[in-house]
Design goal:
242 residues
Length: 242
């Protein structure tokens, strides 16, 4: 009975987030969000320092749950190509992902969460390609990168070359007080429009309407706090749509 109550409460939070997003869209709200982490970045040079987390101590952190039985989020997805693990979800992100890692694992049991401080787009692409080569990449993929530097349409296409054949790919747009926020979110939106199995989790709009969720840097969330719950729920509902 306790487990059922917990799942019911989380489902309620998920639908509250969906309602918030719908209201924002209806009001014509426009905003942008950026997720932050680093690695060798193809487009951003050293002049663009990464957005460092203040509560992770600046150390890279990666958490995997590959030993947990795979969990399929929806039964309506097309089958994946070779190299992907059917019924499994992989999430790759930067330090912002560490803020909502626990609620995301609760919303999607069995998910493999690969979050690291200061990870950039290029490093995330390399990790995804490696996981695919090792037959460890889920057929459903969540990408929460580009907080730490600018990205281009070419970067997006390069990422999709590694993810081509996935059943679904969710890109999480970003909320960060850096000049590349809006351009990066435009790249993500335009890129998603070019690939039929790609969708955007619009964290930018939801985050802009809830500044109370953020720490002093305006990008990171209280670990497992209300903002972290909201972002995890948004990603989960986006993954399950359609």
């Amino acid at each position: 009975m306790i487990v059922m109550a917990q799942h019911s409460a989380r489902r309620s939070r998920i639908w509250l987030v969906i309602a918030s997003v719908v209201v924002l869209v209806g009001a014509g709200a426009v905003a942008v969000v950026l997720s932050h982490h680093s690695g060798p970045h193809k487009s951003a040079g050293s002049a663009n320092p990464p957005v460092h987390s203040t509560h992770h101590g600046g150390h890279s952190t990666t958490t995997t749950t590959s030993s947990v039985p795979p969990t399929t989020t929806t039964s309506t997805l097309p089958p994946p190509a070779a190299g992907f693990v059917t019924g499994h979800v992989t999430a790759v992100g930067d330090s912002v992902m560490l803020d909502y890692q626990t609620p995301l694992q609760s919303d999607i049991p069995g998910i493999d969460v690969e979050g690291a401080v200061s990870r950039q787009w290029g490093a995330g692409e390399q990790l995804l390609a490696q996981l695919k080569a090792e037959s460890q990449l889920g057929a459903e993929v969540i990408v929460a990168l580009s907080t730490n530097g600018p990205i281009s349409a070419t970067d997006f296409d390069d990422m999709m070359s590694a993810l081509q054949g996935a059943s679904r790919v969710v890109f999480v747009n970003i909320h960060v007080d850096r000049p590349w926020q809006d351009p990066n979110n435009a790249v993500l939106a335009q890129g998603a429009a070019r690939y039929p199995r790609v969708v955007i989790a619009d964290w930018a709009s939801l985050a802009a309407a809830n500044p109370q969720w953020f720490g002093a840097d305006g990008t990171h969330l209280a670990i497992d706090g209300p903002g972290a719950d909201a972002l995890a729920s948004l990603i989960t509902t986006t993954l399950m749509q359609g």
